[in-house]
Amino acid sequence: MGTPPVMAQDDFQSKPDFVCFRKIIVELKDVKELTSEHEGQLLNDLKATGLRLGLPVNLGSRPNVEIERRMIGSMIFSVSFRAFRG
Fold it and tell me: Which of the two residues, 25 and 40, has the higher pLDDT score?
């Protein structure tokens, strides 16, 4: 079962990068910092799919990986994690 397409404000279709366990949208980014545009994309995806939890993951904030938690209808939490170096 695929993820339903999401209609963005610009009338083009987008899809979440990943949907995990049919409950969590994971959006991967490679930018210096996450912006309100990135959050808007995630919120559009959440509303369109009917899901409540999203994780924008920014791989561009080196040497850290920034992971935020966004939840519709609840408090918003933000956490950052250090990247694993093997």
Answer: 25
Q: Which residue has the higher pLDDT, 22 or 66?
A: 22
DSSP string, 10-48: TS-EE--SEEETTTEEEEEE-SSS--HHHHHHHHHHHHH
- Those residues whose C-beta lies under 8 Å from the C-beta of residue 7, and which sit 6 or more positions away, are 13, 44, 48
CATH classification number, 12-82, choose in 3.90.1570.10, 3.30.40.10, 1.10.8.80, 3.30.1330.60: 3.90.1570.10
